[in-house]
User: What shape does this take?
Amino acid sequence: MLLTMKVKLYPDEYQHKALLETMERFNEACNYVSKIAWSTHTFGKVGIQKIVYYDVRDKYHLSAQMVVRAVGKVAESYRIDKTCLHEFRKQGAIVYDQRILTFKATDEISILTLEGRERIKIKYGEYRQLDMERVRGQADLIYHNNTFYLMVVVDVPDAKPIDPEGVIGVDRGIVNIATTSDGEVFSGKKCTEVRQRYSALKARLQSVGTLSAKKHLRKISGRERRFKKDTNHCIAKAIVQTAKDTNRAIAIEDLTGIRTNSTVNKVVRTAISKWAFDELRNYLKYKATLAGIQVFEIDPKNTSRECSVCGHIDRKNRKSQAEFCCVECGHQENADVNASKNILVRGICQLPHSPLAC
Ligand SMILES: [Zn+2]
Assistant: This one.
């Protein structure tokens, strides 16, 4: 599995200055390349390179490979949007590849700067033990709060899959971000509060419309996104840990089609996309894969309307968002827990030696 790993750099004062100058020069070059790409309507990598290569080398005194990377960054950016001139931040990322960046030892890199190659100490976060031969392709050098980091793509071996003895059903939602068939509820209350707080603030800032308001807006959006991300990360971690401890697989609903589902009204749809169900799914899948745990994606049809005890399906079973009460057998339960139990049963059907006839 490919993972992005954040590696912190420990340059000395001279190296720090060299890296920063390189970064700024690189982005100046990107802006120059971008203007030419825009004015000549040449957006492909090869096309742009033909026009600007010698010019950029001359003007910015960048190495051949750095010019190629700058052109690559510009072309990549226009690939997504060709409707306006793109500008790059003074301290935006530099894309490094194996020709201009090498991992020397477990704690050192050799990286190209305007002053030539520099050997700089590094430290990994949680993947310290990783074999650097697993590093794949490119790495972005980023600068944040006066610190340099490399975002490195690493090929991590999947854990040996465990043979599951059962399944945990996980229902994802807006009021409750996740509810497991064990009855564990991860509430979305805190997230809703944060979202509402930021929504109101964002609306105010949007109506102001000044440059500083826009800047503030960007900052808030970033904060909100990080909060959500962190929440999803923690929930996924907890669920995968439980699955691992109890030797079970995880079942979730396959919600690929949910955004176009016409029965979901607009308010819910916005909330769903805002809340990013996908993010939790992706975290669950990748943490599970690393732990050797299978994730089954099951058909979501009627999971919230079906009685987990007698199997009766009825719209009326769902009294409210929170309350489930079966009109057939009278079974009462928290609606999300009931749904997660249905997900559990459908997940059991997917076990290799399923005890259920599905
Ligand atoms: Zn029932």
Notes: The chain has two domains: 2-155, 166-188+230-348. The radius of gyration is 25 Å. Helices lie at 13-40, 45-60, 64-80, 189-208, 211-245, 266-275, 277-291, 335-348. The mean pLDDT is 87.
